[in-house]
Structures are given as C-alpha cells and as structure tokens.
Amino acid sequence: MVLSTANNKSNRQLRWYWELAIVLIDRNLQRRYRGSVLGIYWSLFNPLIMTGLYTAIFGATFASYYNNSTLNYVLAAFTGLIVINFFSSSTAQALASVVENGAIVNKIRLPLFIFPLSTIGANIFQLIMGALPLLIIVTLIISRNPINSLALCLPIAALTLVCTGVGLLMSALYVFFRDLSYFYELLTFLLWIGSPVFYPADIVPEAVRKFLILNPLLPIIESIRQISLSGSLPDLVLIFQAFLSGTIVLVIGIVAFYSRQSQFIDLL
Questions:
Q1: Which three-class secondary structure state does DSSP give residue 268?
Q2: pTM of this structure
Q3: Cα dihedral 202, 72, 149, 127 in deg (nearest 10)
C-alpha cells in the first residue's frame, strides 16, 4: 500500500514535469519565431546555405578526400553542419535559461532543471521538423536500407545527451559568472573549428589530431556520416563511442547542476 502510494505520487510528479516541459517548449518556439515567415524552417535553411558556401569555396579542393565526388563533400558538410548547428543553438540558449526565468522561480516553486531541458527540447522539435527528414531521405537514397534511416536516431540521441549535459553545466555556471556568455561564444567557435565539419579529418596534422579525441561531437559526426553516406550497415563501434561521449558529458552536467542548484535562488 505504501509502495503503491509512492509510485502514484512519483507518476503524478513525472506527468507534471512533462506537461510543464511541453508548455515551456511551446513558449520558447513562439518567442523565437514570432513574426518570422519561415519559422522553424530556418533551422533547415541555415545548414543548406552554409553547405552551399563551403562547397563553393572548398568543394573542388577537398573532393579528392571524398572519392573525388563533390556531391559526397556536399553531403558530408551538410551532416556536419546539422550537428554543430544543433549543438551551438541548443547549448547557447540553455546557458541563460535559468537566469532568464529568475523572476518566475522567485514567485513560483518550479524545478530549475526544467528550463535548460525545455530549450534542448525546443531545438529537438526544430530538428525533427526541419533538417532530420531531409537527412533521412538522403540516407534512404544512398544506403537503400531502412535500417540505416532508423539507426540515425542513435547518434542523434547521443547528440542530445551531449547537449543536455553541456546545457546543464553552462546554465549552472552562468548563475555565478555572467561573463560566461561571451566566453562561451569563443568556446563554441573553437569547437566548430575543431570539428571536421567543412574539412576532412585526414588533413589535420598528426600532432593535432590526437586532441580531436577530446571533442565529444567528433564520434557523433563520424557516426551520422557513416550511417548516411557509406552505404554499409551502421558501425556499432562508432555508435558506442558516440553514446560513451554523450553519457560522460551528461553525467558531468547533472553533477555540476545538482551540486550548485541550492545556491541559485539567492543569485537570481
């Protein structure tokens, strides 16, 4: 009887968290795209336009690293941009989410973690409605195997873990250090340059390449490219590496957030 009551209370609390997250995701999307003509489809046009720009500048030079195919370079750059754009957008918005909602949490008792998670959720919705369907179609055309299209969910899930971990960590740090937003812009730029998005990893000098292993986005980008563009079955080792990096970053973010959240209210 006691166990059943505890389970019911836990279920009600989870349902309340879920409904609250849905409301905040909807509010984030409406605030972000109010008055916009294309709305969430900007999340698709941005990587398409950037892919065109990279192809015009680097396509002929780097095509030799992609089986002498400019089309392969286009697809590789597009998949890399989807990952890096999702990461930059979701974590930058999560960074300020707790502070921006300080006035609300000072009046109403709300779980603080819901704010960074809802910004990640809003970006996941954008991805599902924008770039992901195009990526699934490209994968289906090249691999001719629906398993590959379904397997795309695995590195995307790993990407979500990375973004959630970084989002929790940055939102906690931003409560204490308001200059962090400026430093984080530099950090995301360095991560973007350090990820083989518009260039092949093979051109990176050997002395520098060993540091790329510290980039949690690298196995995710490589896994999505392998699933989408290789035409072979998904590489389970790459998927495992993507999930491993995602899990490590998520644990770091959760520990940092929960170890400091008791001090948040005094600073909001």
A1: coil
A2: 0.89
A3: 80
